[in-house]
Description:
The structure is a single chain. The chain is an alpha+beta fold. The protein is built from 10 helices and 14 strands. The chain has helices spanning 38-42, 75-80, 103-120, 137-143, 145-156, 212-215, 217-228, 250-258, 264-267, 276-279, and strands at residues 6-9, 19-23, 28-34, 51-58, 65-72, 88-96, 124-125, 178-182, 185-192, 195-198, 203-205, 232-235, 238-241, 245-247. The strands form 3 sheets. Strands 1-2-3-6-4-5-7 form a 7-stranded mixed β-sheet. The chain has a 4-stranded antiparallel β-sheet with strand order 8-9-10-14, covered by helices on one side. A 3-stranded antiparallel β-sheet has the order 11-13-12. The longest helix has 18 residues, at 103-120.
Amino acid sequence: MASATIKLFLPYGDGTRLRTAEISNWSGRALAAPRTDFEDLLAREELEGSGVYILTGTDPATGKPMAYIGEAEVLSERLKTHKNLEFWIAAVVFLSKDENLTKSHIRYLEGRLIEEAKAANRFILHNAQSSGAKLPEADRHDMEEFPAKIHQLLPVLGSEVLTPIGGSEPPGDTIPVLQTEIKGLVARGRRTPTGFVVLAGSQAVAEPRPSADQYWPALLALRQQLLADGSLVQKDGHLLFTKDVEFTSPSQAASIVHGGNASGPNAWRDAKGITLGELEEV
Length: 282
């Protein structure tokens, strides 16, 4: 992805409150706000126009991140109808400074964002059904810049809803793929901007250590969650990762693989046998 110059404006001088964001040489604009600043967001003049929006929070039933992605010809009016949705705590809105987004454009953008959020698989989607709107080829070409800029701005505004597990781009040589072994089983993973990802096809021990029940109940709960959602499956006497799974740290990732407490900096090694800890000391 090309470099970009982003201009942030904080109307209240507080980066956690209402803020606007623009990218140089782009006709779009983003506005983000916590729910506590929702009325201030609705009062913005820009929200009298059309655009797309993303509401994020936590699913009260599962405790997992949840998002609602929508579109509107009059953003302020549409957003008011979501006051009855309890789950969300933050809103991000994207619109055009030129006010040239038609109903077809915003329905197309909504569909793109929903599909990309599904592919990223970080959030449960409150509305997983996209409109399926299509644009003429020329309009589609003109609109390609908009989703790309949204991808760039969302992490800056505090949302990873579209960021694939492992980051937005394939890693270069500076982020090596590492592996850890236990009882003949091999798992592969690497650092990401938001944690440590264990790659699909990696193996883990089937049974946790006896001490895990007493000393690491959170580890057991996480393993059970991964088994319940299909991220881990039983196979030939061990566990198999069916997809890339991101953890908060190398140690948490290694502990899931090993079935008990493990030091990530020591457990993960590169192809030459150099540990993650040693690599990061250089």
